[in-house]
Amino acid sequence: MLARKEYEEIERKVLCEERLSREDGLRLFACPDLSWLGALADYVRRKKCGDIVYYNVNCHVNLTNICTSRCKFCAFGRDAEDRGAYAMEEADAIHVVEDAMRDPDLAGLHVVSGLHPNWSFEDYLSRVETLHRRFPKLYIKGFTGVEITHFAKISGKSVEEVLRLLMERGGLEAIAGGGAEILSDRVRGELCPNKATAAEWLEVHRTAHRLGLRSNASMLYGHIETMGERIDHLLTLRKLQDETGGFQTFICFPFLPANSELGKTVKQTSMFDDLKTMAISRLMLDNFQNIKAYWVMLTVPVAQVALSFGANDIDGTVHKETILHDAGATSPRALSEDRIIRIIREAGRIPAACDCNFNIIRKYA
Amino acid sequence: MRLTPKEAETLLTSGDLIALGQEADAERRRRFGDTVTFIVDRNINYTNVCESECKFCAFYKRKDEKGAYLLSYDTILEKVRETANAGGTQVMIQGGLHPDLDLEYYLKMLRLIKEEFPSIVIHSFTATEVLYFAKKAGLTVEETLRRLQEAGLASLPGGGAEILVDEVRSRISPNKISTEEWLRVHRTAHKIGMESTATMVIGFGETMADRVAHMEHIRRLQEETGGFRAFITWTYQPGHTELGGEKTSAWDYMRTLAVTRLYMDNVSHIQGSWVTQGERMGQLTLGFGADDLGSIMLEENVVRAAGTSYDMSIQKMVRIIEGAGRTAAQRDTEYHILRSFP
Q1: Among the partner residues A32, A35, A304, nearest to B21 by beta-carbon distance
Q2: Which of the listed CATH numbers 3.20.20.70, 3.90.1150.10, 3.60.40.10, 1.10.560.10 matches domain B5-327?
Q3: What is the ipTM of this complex?
Q4: Mean pLDDT across the stretch A72-76?
Q5: Which of A147, A229, B123, B128 is least enclosed by beta carbons within 10 angstroms?
């Protein structure tokens, strides 16, 4: 590998599997040598994960877009009386999934929703329970740390009780990674003061891991955060992962400025920033097994290229994804499995369909 | 060590993308350091009437077809004026093979432009057009080029090359000039002191061996003449064309771009195509061997007709380049730096 002198020490650490420090992380963000960063992350990816690229055949169920949180970066949430506001009854949710079931390979559901002002925890729970009973073969992954914190608050139950009920009645098999945004109270205070704090988000994941429920983690970047806050976010996740080992994959969400309040003052991240952030995440999160290139956010071509920048997971077919498309995502509404397989193969890798806990369902060697 | 055709074919087929990117980037850095250039110019497509009727083209019309046009000299001059006013230094005039026009039409166009705008550089007419003008005038290619040069033509753009393999050409553009003819026009231009650029268009369903054959033709001619300033890879835009199909992936484009930087060791500049890849992928080409992003394109009808349309301004271009951690610089046709940003 080839690098400028000041990066030789970082390269040495990576090759010796030594942990990178906060200073190393900041230096990497300042590094203009994109292909060196990519190659380093690709080296780690190959060593840690081999050539398999995971994807899933799933359907997104967003039960409601009515949300009391109204984060400044969000183009999905609405007030109840706003145009386009919706709240699914059980029958509506069943209909969405039945429609997606036309794909015989559909393996599971990704259920993430707004914080509806009038819904009780039971309202959410009964809907997911209905889906679970009606479609017992589909795995259910869902509910972010933000939703679960909200459920605990409105029901007066502990986070642990909420999680147990979601597992027992709702069939929940894994927690979604969303809602982490930037785990800094400064950033959250400015962008999303009405939802779970950094500590609350982390507590949900810690509790879930203790109950044997695994989860994902994410970062929404490219808005008002500093590079230091990005690194600290990664270090916070790395620390919890050291403690529990319950995180499965890490997802970078670049902020898409179209349609949200914050987008009026913030420009979209550059391609260089997106790929650098992907690579640096791979390098910093040495105790995470997987790094996801989420094509819905990145677009398909960028997600494919990101497979050379540390990613080994490309998410899935995502029937019905709404949240990011409201935010102005220009990617298609869903991808066919064939297309996903082709994209992965062109990158010289092995496509493997997996469930929400990264168990391989089928592999195309 | 120079890459052999066989090695290049292997790299295009199964080379590791990021390893190739790193090598190409190192080569780019060795040559140009942190500077990335662009040019402010305008494409003027004087007519869309074309006898060639290539199957990959969404721009051409038959003479009597709806939407067929031929710009007047006045309109062309107005477009040059707008270019000059916008700080542009070059015009790239290209058009279809119009059956009713003769060499005198083009010579007069050049003279009129130079008369009014002596400092605007005319980087215009692809080899395909030059050969067509020569045939219609009953002149040799050399004589035709000399007359064009005398009237004000400075250099030739590299279009019309597509893939320089006759088997591919007969499938996608049976009426267009052959490989040998394209090379002959550029060889002749270089001989009379008229430099040019070379392009390659990928994604027609050509093989990797075809791409290598194309690059090898250019590399050999460059050994002979040294007249190519830049090598530019585009992707075929399948929208609204007879040939149809799907656009090749960014993965394929980036890998090919990196290989061209390594293979075309005797061509100075490698241009990344934001026009066919979009602004974000355009930026990424700067990490895979490109040192130039071409024109901000005040107008580009041909690509727009195939369904790709991107806006660009100097400000946006500078932001893209700076976002890649590089220094942006506006250049002229000969790649001299006119001003650096900021």
Answers
A1: A35
A2: 3.20.20.70
A3: 0.89
A4: 92
A5: A229
